[in-house]
């Protein structure tokens, strides 16, 4: 990462004193317009970001990490965030946690605010943003940043990426259902053409195509409400479908509700597998089979990788994927 431009760099470029730049940053009326314009032009050219934190809390010495999550309402992401936060805390680092709620504008605002307040590093599970402007501002600021669980910016030479081996998880789930005698297996949930959707369903597609079996997909927001709707649709319009792999456990839990409403017995008449293995998967009835991603351990590993980067200068690998496993329960084994 290149060195961040400083207030001295701005002053030199604008041909003014450091105190004048400070006055401009503070919107002081004592600076004449022509000087203010020169300073603002220098700030834009250099990519300088005003840090509002006290001098002793700036830069990598601040002990403050920005943890930005795309959807904290989802227990999968909540568990990750909690694990990462606790790992940073054990090493004496505080975290500022923000939920962007899948909104790229909110994401940009949160990132800008955290940069201004002097975070040492970012760990981001990003909301999808076609412009990529949020990551541009991070690169200009020169802040070490790790993308997790979703890869939005592909500049891995700048922003390394860590996630789970979703492809292997899909393959494990699909092979298990085929071995259980299922032949018309659907993939349910996830927004169409989103990279994480394509990644999670690619293992399913690989196995189905290799076995000469038809691929059936139901795209939609990965929520319980969507899962319930799809379960009801399958029972009425697609009675030949005998199993499903879901984009997430939330979709699968919704499908459990929908099938119960329709009077279909999951585990016997219809086999179902979720993705993530959140805690609720083992508590519902029938207990939900799921691809376990162990987000608790993943959060700890991600935090440790970031600490090694900002403390010891050991940058994480460009791409790191952690193993997954299939947890077989009643929804695919039978009751």
Q: Order of strands in the sheet with the most strands? A: 2-1-3-4-5-11
Count of β-strands? 12
Distance between the termini: 55 Å
- What overall geometry do the principal axes of the alpha carbons give? elongated
**Could you give a short account of the major beta sheet?**
6 strands, parallel
Helix content: 40-55%
Report the C-alpha radius of gyration, rounded: 24 Å
Count of alpha and pi helical runs: 12
Order of helices and strands: HHHEHEHEHEEHEHEHEHEEHEEH
- Look at the helices and sheets and give the structural class: alpha/beta
Low-confidence segments, given as residue ranges, are: 53-61
Structure description:
With 335 residues, this protein is α/β, with parallel strands linked by helices. 44% of the residues lie in helices and 16% in strands. The strands form two sheets. The protein has a six-stranded parallel sheet with strand order 2-1-3-4-5-11, sandwiched between helices. A six-stranded mixed sheet has the order 7-6-8-9-10-12, with helices on both faces.
Secondary-structure map with pairings?
Elements: H1 7-14, H2 18-25, H3 33-46, E1 64-69, H4 75-90, E2 94-99, H5 104-116, E3 121-125, H6 133-141, E4 145-148, E5 161-164, H7 166-179, E6 185-188, H8 195-210, E7 216-218, H9 224-237, E8 243-246, H10 249-262, E9 271-276, E10 289-292, H11 295-312, E11 319-322, E12 325-327, H12 330-333
Parallel strand pairs: 1-2, 1-3, 3-4, 4-5, 5-11, 6-7, 6-8, 8-9, 9-10
Antiparallel strand pairs: 10-12
Helix pairs in contact: 1-2, 1-3, 4-11, 5-6, 7-8, 9-10
């Amino acid at each position: 990462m290149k060195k961040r431009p400083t207030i001295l760099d701005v002053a030199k470029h604008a041909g003014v004193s450091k105190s004048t730049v400070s006055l401009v940053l503070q919107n002081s009326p004592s600076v004449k317009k022509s000087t203010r314009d020169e300073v603002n032009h220098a700030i834009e050219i250099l990519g300088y970001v005003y840090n509002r934190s006290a001098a002793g809390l700036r830069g990598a010495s601040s002990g403050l990490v920005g943890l930005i999550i795309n959807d904290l309402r989802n227990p999968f992401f909540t568990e990750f965030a909690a694990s990462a936060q606790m790992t940073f805390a054990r090493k004496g680092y505080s975290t500022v946690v923000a939920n962007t709620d899948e909104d790229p504008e909110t994401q940009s605002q949160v990132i800008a605010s955290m940069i201004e307040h002097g975070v040492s590093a970012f760990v981001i599970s990003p909301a999808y943003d076609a412009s990529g402007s949020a990551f541009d501002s991070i690169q200009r600021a020169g802040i070490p940043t790790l993308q997790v669980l979703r890869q939005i910016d592909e500049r891995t030479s700048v922003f390394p990426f860590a996630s789970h081996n979703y492809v292997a998880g899909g393959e494990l789930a699909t092979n298990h259902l085929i071995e259980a005698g299922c032949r018309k297996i659907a993939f349910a949930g996830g927004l169409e053409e989103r990279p994480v959707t394509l990644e999670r369903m690619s293992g399913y597609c690989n196995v189905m195509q290799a076995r000469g079996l038809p691929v059936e997909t139901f795209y939609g927001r990965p929520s319980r409400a969507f899962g319930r709707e799809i379960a009801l649709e399958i029972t009425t319009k697609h009675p030949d479908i005998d199993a499903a792999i879901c984009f997430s456990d939330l979709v699968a839990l919704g499908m459990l509700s929908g099938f119960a409403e329709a009077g279909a017995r999951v585990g016997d008449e219809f086999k179902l597998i979720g993705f993530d293995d959140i805690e609720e998967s083992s508590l519902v009835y029938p207990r939900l089979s799921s691809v376990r991603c162990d987000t608790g351990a993943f959060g700890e590993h991600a935090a440790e990788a970031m600490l090694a980067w900002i403390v010891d200068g050991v940058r994480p690998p460009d791409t790191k994927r952690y193993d997954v496993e299939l947890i077989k329960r009643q929804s695919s084994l039978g009751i």
